[in-house]
Amino acid sequence: MDKLFCENLKKLNIIKKGDKLTLAVSGGADSMYLFYNFMDIKDELDLDIIVCHLNHGIRETAKRDEDFVKNICESYKIKCITKTVNMDKYARENKLSSEEAGRILRYNFFRENSKNRKILTAHNANDRAETLLFNIIRGTGISGLVGISEVKGDIFRPILDIKRREIEDYLHKNNLAYVDDETNFEEIYTRNKIRLSLIPYLSKLNPNIIDSLLRLSKNARDADDFIKEIVEKNYKKAVKENYFVVDEIIKIHKFLACEIIKKYLIENFYAENILNRDNILSIYNLFFGESGKVLQLGSNISARKSYDKVFIEREKAEREKRYAKLKLGINKTDFGEIFISRDERNSEAPSFIKTIDCDKIKGKLFIRTRQSGDRFKPLGMKRNKKVKDYFIDRKVDRLKRDKIGIVCDEEKIIYIIGMDISEDVKIDENTLNKLVLEVRNVRY
Asked: Which residues form the Lysidine-tRNA(Ile) synthetase C-terminal domain (predicted)?
């Protein structure tokens, strides 16, 4: 076993005795270095090892590489799982770059065959440096300067601190076989151009460019860890269920606020591809805008400010809630389940419960949504008030106003669900007959 590999494995402390491992082996120098060294410690650590090899289906020598990996695994009595895909076709169908398509197909394949296993890839120090440059070229924040991490979920990268030159030297000195992917020496992908042209050019300016980039990566990681710690402390105060608390966001530094917004987008809308600096800054500016302002983020997703809250939500068509007559007993409506009784409770824990004077009701009861010109005399008030103004005063979210159930008799509004009953139906010293309204499973 390579001493450098051994020292690196101990430092990372990511492999335990008795682990079940999947080695991602392409047949190239990096993955074979990973393979040979794990063969040396397999018995000592009682490791359960399988190998996964994906044939991307894009070059004539791919079958040669697949057979090489199969034969090596057979000689070491290691189970080898292979699969052939059409990477270019997948990229076209999903409108992806070939590099991104290959990455997705590889990790999907590894995970398909790695239940309860750690997946080990052969990314090395040069890969980390190349990724850092790739991120800089595309435009990145501090987290992008970290580059590749040693551990990310079920993916482990135990040789990430070992340089490609050191890997090749070890293989050559010990006459250990591997195969070369000829496309690695062609400037057909962005990463290849970085590896074959950009890094050699930068090496003329700084012979230790790889070490410098790795140092930058480690410094960025320390900064990123610190930022994440501060973000986590503020996140719980600034984000509640499905909205941001405006007062919490506007009182903190813009950078921290944007990191909180970024974290929320990653956790809730990552697949929608709306995570970019323009959207983050636009959402941040929304906190200082007027209530009711709406911002389109793309992919049928919008951000909007509603008084002291900012919502980011998927736009969806909802059917209009239906009018329904109400009777004694259980009434199942679009607004929730409403139980009406003379003077008894049907549930120990209804969502809302109100008691009114039955004799002050005119005609039959029904439930509906608000209508233009609706007026209402809230409990404790002497005059009617427009329902629209009532909602505004209570800071009811604009999108919820047309979903709230309003219980009426044939003359007036009796009760706005979850809010006030009417002054006109309140119980007083002259009340003889009561009516109890219980509302459960309220739907706004």
From this structure: 365-437
